[in-house]
Design goal:
about 350 residues; mainly alpha
Length: about 350
């Protein structure tokens, strides 16, 4: 039964282009193409089944729930820390602006009390960080939270500072909001106070919409980047295939062109060689014409005729001698012994004749 279902699934892959697109959309981080899924239908089936249990990032539903829960807890803790940190930084900005301002009517006691409280609060927080690392770790300079709290301003000054602090904080935040509004929309800077307050009330919504727009653009940019990466991979694959085909065509055409070129070169060298041979023959004939005149040619003809006649006479003598030798060969070995004896006797006669001639003189 499973084999039959697999066969039906595989046979439907050729038609199910939407299935391939769904698999590619379910796994955008994988470097796959539609051709890869068509060539591997069982792998495509595995991915289609797996996409029902994992998300686009590859996490299972259980891990996704745990991750979302941890992210919510982290977001809550981060939000609380950001509130405290933002308030602390705003208060530091208030103190710094007062320190560098030239306002002589400012309440020095309020700002000095605020600065002192901020500094001690920062020291206490630093001590808390050290105590979290190790319970037996010695604190900086041997300080403790109780010892630091003794350095706090008088309670009456702290109470007066706390009563005035919200108004100062609101004033400073309003100033920062106006500066932000002027930076974000410079044309609103010259508006009236009431209209500016109305637009300030709408600034958070405007900033949220801009932030959502930026997030959507970021997500769209990420999707476009994934799509571009996939298209680039497909483009490079097609480009490599085209380059291979082009290389084969170039090699084939080059071989054909080389064959024709070699044939033409052979024909050229053959014609050149024939021209060279004709020149050599021409030079030889020219040398012969320059060397042999008509008189010399006539003399050479007479010499040639005389030599031919002597050659014929010599050949006739040769034939006569060969016939005599053939007649002598009839007698066989006995005749050879007689010839040797005859040669010996002639040599003795010649020797004795010479001796008699010598004695006679």
């Amino acid at each position: 039964m499973s084999q039959r279902s697999d066969t039906v699934f595989v046979s439907s892959l050729g038609k199910g282009d939407s299935l391939h697109q769904q698999v590619l959309a379910a796994f955008p981080l994988c470097q796959m193409t539609e051709g890869d899924l068509i060539q591997n239908p069982l792998f495509c089936k595995l991915l289609a089944t797996l996409s029902q249990h994992v998300d686009r990032t590859g996490l299972t539903q259980h891990l996704r729930r745990d991750l979302e829960k941890a992210e919510r807890e982290l977001h809550t803790q981060r939000l609380g820390w950001l509130r405290v940190e933002s308030l602390h930084r705003v208060l530091q900005e208030i103190v710094q602006e007062h320190r560098f301002s030239k306002d002589s009517n400012a309440d020095e006691k309020f700002f000095s009390t605020l600065e002192r409280c901020l500094l001690l609060g920062q020291c206490v927080r630093q001590l808390d960080c050290c105590s979290d690392l190790s319970e037996h770790h010695n604190t900086v300079l041997g300080l403790s939270e109780e010892r630091l709290m003794r350095q706090m301003p008088p309670e009456q000054e702290v109470l007066q500072m706390n009563q005035r602090l919200p108004s100062e904080l609101l004033k400073h935040l309003k100033k920062k909001a106006v500066n932000m509004l002027s930076y974000y929309q410079p044309e609103w800077e010259n508006e009236s106070e009431g209209l500016r307050n109305v637009k300030l009330s709408k600034l958070p919504e405007l900033l949220d919409s801009e932030q959502q727009k930026a997030k959507s653009l970021t997500e769209k940019n990420r999707e476009n980047s994934t799509l571009l990466q996939r298209q680039t991979h497909a483009y490079l694959s097609e480009l490599l295939k085209s380059m291979k085909i082009l290389q084969c065509l170039i090699l084939d055409l080059r071989l054909k062109a080389q064959k024709d070129l070699d044939r033409k070169k052979i024909e050229y060298f053959e014609a050149k060689c024939e021209i060279g041979l004709q020149r050599i023959r021409l030079e030889m004939l020219q040398v012969q014409l320059d060397t042999y005149t008509k008189d010399k040619i006539a003399a050479h003809k007479r010499i040639t005729e005389k030599l031919n006649a002597e050659l014929k006479t010599s050949e006739m003598e040769k034939q006569a001698v060969e016939s005599k030798l053939a007649s002598f060969e009839i007698y066989g070995k006995d005749f050879e012994s007689l010839v040797e004896e005859y040669s010996r006797l002639r040599q003795e006669i010649a020797t004795k004749s010479w001796a008699l001639k010598e004695f006679a003189t």
